[in-house]
Specification:
The complex is a heterodimer of chains A (about 375) and B (about 290). Chain A has about 375 residues and is of the alpha/beta class. Helices cover about 45% and strands about 20% of the residues of chain A. Chain A folds into 2 domains: about 10-140 and about 275-350, 3-Layer(aba) Sandwich (Rossmann fold); about 145-270 and about 355-370, Response regulator (Rossmann fold). Chain A has helices at about 1-25, 40-60, 80-90, 105-115, 145-160, 170-185, 205-215, 225-240, 255-260, 280-295, 300-320, 325-330; strands at about 25-30, 65-75, 95-100, 120, 135-140, 165-170, 190-200, 220, 245-250, 270, 335, 340, 355-360, 365-370. In chain A, the strands form 3 sheets. Chain A has a 7-stranded mixed beta sheet, sandwiched between helices. In chain A, β8 (about 220), α8 and β9 form a beta-alpha-beta unit. In chain A, α3 packs parallel to α4, α8 packs parallel to α9 and α11 packs across α12. Chain B contains 11 helices and 2 strands, in the order ααααββααααααα. Chain B is globular. In chain B, β1 (about 125-130) and β2 (about 135) form a beta hairpin. Chain B has one domain (about 15-215). Chain B has helices at about 1-30, 40-55, 60-80, 90-110, 140-160, 160-170, 175-180, 185-210, 220-230, 235-255, 265-280, and strands at about 125-130, 135. Chain B is mainly alpha-helical and about 290 residues long. Classes of the chains: A alpha/beta (about 375), B mainly alpha (about 290).
Chain lengths: ~375, ~290
């Protein structure tokens, strides 16, 4: 009899151990473009997120439980993102999701996470409607309009340049930036001479270069990702245009400098990552990312890293069991991360300062910081 | 002066379109296959151009290497993918071609990485002012010079050599050509070699203008070159050249003056629709 109880106890014990091992992992959903046109940013985002998970697990996890990323390739496409969001919520039963993807797919997934009551953090997608999906959706990067306004302040006030030609990438990203820029332009005395639009597939800007040269602006405000901005800046310089070029976080990659080469020198951008920051979290991230990937750190990687850290912090303080409690904990975030001091407003938009970086000797460096709270205040409804 | 410059930009773009679309026309003229995977050969050309230039420092060598390697890959593509399907309806070959193209894009990503490649020391940067207000970039000058050179040689070969005669004979009537002792198999190989080599040159030139090759750089040419050969009149070489130039110029002016309404592709396809409404056979097509 005692032996029987002993065996029973052993079986029970083994199954308890198994159960606790299972409970020892916390699944976080991560949708990211790993194939298609956005695969480069996707790889950076994935590496940044994985780095954050390794760091958190290496330091003992969240209350002893290990984080596990459940990663799906959304090709930056809304029609891929919807089934992925459903799969993450229903099949993988993740406690929360993070988007390492662009606006289109993040916007599509946000509604599904909201409906299911699962917290969702957009790492670097900038469309204003993402957080408007509801109170379970947060964003750790700037809305496009906010960054556009920062660009206007940088040009009109810090640089004191007034006659601007705008070159806009025709998608959510570029148009939101242009809208913010134009909204704030007049208050900094900026005159917009001309605006040109290009599609994300364009790499040859010959006609725009010719026209901009004829417009004779003092400065060019051009939106784009590094794979459009690299060719654009290199062609503007090859076309004999030497006025300052102001970009934004889409440029924020060492690849931009590799593509544009010498032409990239002096390009100034508004972004989230300050390479010369004295903040320990930022420096640690930059070093760890380079060690892990062999690539220079970029904004996308830093943003994904930040989003995971924000979520881990919320899991730590809320106990990772109840999704509504996790949501409330995210809303209370006050964390120093690789992209600076993070807190959210009531819509779930991040409140932080804009980092201005400049290309010097083939590297991104600190130029200035814009921390005008009123100008940078994100939408709150 | 601005108009002159925009016209010139249009011709530069048109020359690149022409180099890509000619290979498609050659294939269509001979085999009636819409060779979508041709755009992957353009991408491959760009990659080889950048890699060889970075290794050797010589752009000329890079262009030559790209032409030869891509030409051979084009022949292999025909041999492995199209030849077994020749007896099937043409849409089967089209499906195979699309599959090849998608596979190639992902293969480029897996082999060379998603970030793309750039010239370490980009050749032919900068430019000069020919006359006041008219600025010419070195890279663009090379595009024009190479295109004229290549097209002249091609025109001479097809018009004045035995090779050209047998090629044209095969296009017109393969059975008759065979009866006269033309090895139509060789003509087809040659056809793919030349068409692919032209796409490779375009790839190297585009890589030079953008200083970037990336896995998806063939996605626009994959459909735009099809639009061009339809616009020119399927299988018509002159039509293809004309359509390339017209499209280049329309896109150049359109980008500036109606770019906020219609993007480049919309302009191109809008123009295609208008032309096909009045000339269903294309600009220089015969039907």
């Amino acid at each position: 009899m005692t032996m029987k109880i002993g065996i029973l106890g052993a079986i029970l014990g083994v199954s308890l151990v198994a159960a606790s091992a299972q409970a020892g992992t916390i699944k976080i959903g991560f949708n990211v473009p790993l194939t298609g046109f956005a695969a480069a940013d996707g790889l950076s985002a994935k590496t940044g997120a994985e780095l954050a998970v390794e760091q958190i697990n290496g330091a003992g996890g969240v209350k002893g439980d290990m984080l596990e990323l459940v990663i799906y390739d959304d090709q930056a496409s809304p029609k891929e993102a919807v089934p992925i969001a459903q799969k993450l919520i229903e099949k993988d039963e993740v406690v929360a999701g993070v988007s390492g993807s662009y606006s289109g797919s993040t916007r599509a997934a946000a509604g599904i996470f909201q409906e299911a009551g699962v917290p969702y953090i957009s790492a670097y997608a900038i469309h204003p409607d993402i957080t408007r999906a509801g109170n379970f959706v947060f964003r750790t990067s700037f809305v496009g309009e906010v960054q556009g306004r920062a660009g206007a302040k940088l040009i009109g006030e810090s640089l004191g340049l007034k006659r601007v030609a705008i070159i806009t990438l025709k998608n959510d990203f570029g148009q939101a930036l242009a809208a913010g820029f134009k909204e704030a332009a007049s208050s900094f005395g900026i005159e917009i001479l001309s605006e040109y639009e290009y599609s994300i597939k364009d790499r040859q800007f010959g006609p725009i270069v010719s026209k901009v040269r004829a417009d004779k602006p003092d400065v060019i405000y051009a939106s784009g990702y590094f794979f459009t901005a690299g060719p654009l800046v290199s062609q503007l310089r090859a076309g004999g245009i030497d006025v300052p070029i102001i970009g934004q976080e889409g440029y924020d990659s060492q690849k931009f400098i590799e593509i544009a080469g010498a032409a990239s020198e002096g390009t100034i951008i508004t972004t989230s990552l300050d390479r010369d920051s004295s903040v320990a979290e930022t420096q640690d991230f930059i070093k760890a990312f380079e060690a892990k990937s062999g690539q220079k750190a970029d904004m996308v990687a830093a943003s994904a890293h930040t989003a995971i850290k924000v979520l881990a912090e919320a899991l730590q303080s809320s106990g990772a069991s109840d999704r509504a409690a996790i949501r409330n904990a995210i809303a209370q975030t006050n964390l120093t991360a690789s992209t600076g001091q993070i807190s959210f407003n009531k819509l779930g938009e991040v409140q932080k300062s804009v980092q201005v970086q400049i290309v010097k000797d083939g590297q991104w460096h600190h130029h200035s910081v814009i921390d005008d709270a009123e100008l940078l205040s994100p939408p709150s409804e | 002066m601005l108009y002159l410059e925009l016209l010139f930009q249009g011709i530069v773009q048109g020359s690149i379109y022409a180099l890509i679309a000619l290979g498609l026309t050659l294939v269509y003229g001979l085999l009636r296959i819409l060779h979508v995977a041709h755009a992957a050969l353009f991408t491959l050309g760009g990659y080889i151009g950048v890699i060889v230039t970075n290794q050797t420092g010589s752009l000329a060598l890079a262009i030559l290497a790209a032409m030869i390697v891509v030409g051979l890959v084009g022949v292999a593509m025909y041999k492995l993918a199209y030849e077994p399907l020749l007896s099937k309806p043409p849409f089967i070959a089209l499906i195979a071609s699309i599959a090849l193209f998608i596979a190639a894009e992902e293969l480029f990503r897996i082999i060379f990485g998603p970030y793309g490649l750039s010239y370490e020391n980009p050749p032919l940067q900068g430019g000069f002012e020919i006359i006041s207000g008219f600025f010419l970039k070195y890279g663009e000058a090379l595009v024009i010079i190479l295109s004229i050179l290549i097209l002249s040689v091609l025109g001479w070969v097809s018009g004045y050599t035995r090779l050209g005669v047998s090629w044209r004979a095969t296009v017109t009537d393969p059975d008759m050509a065979r009866a006269f002792g033309v090895n139509t198999q060789h003509v087809r190989y040659l056809n793919f070699f030349i068409g692919s080599a032209l796409a490779a040159v375009a790839g190297v030139l585009v890589a030079l203008l953008n200083n970037l090759v990336e896995p998806t750089m063939g996605s626009v040419p994959s459909y735009k070159a099809l639009a061009i050969i339809v616009l020119g009149g399927l299988g018509s070489i002159r039509g293809t050249l004309l359509a390339s130039m017209i499209l280049g110029v329309i896109e150049s002016f359109g980008t500036i003056y109606i770019g906020h309404l219609l993007d480049r592709d919309a302009l191109a396809f809008g123009f295609l629709i208008v032309v096909l409404m009045f000339r269903p056979q294309g600009l220089l097509g015969t039907r």
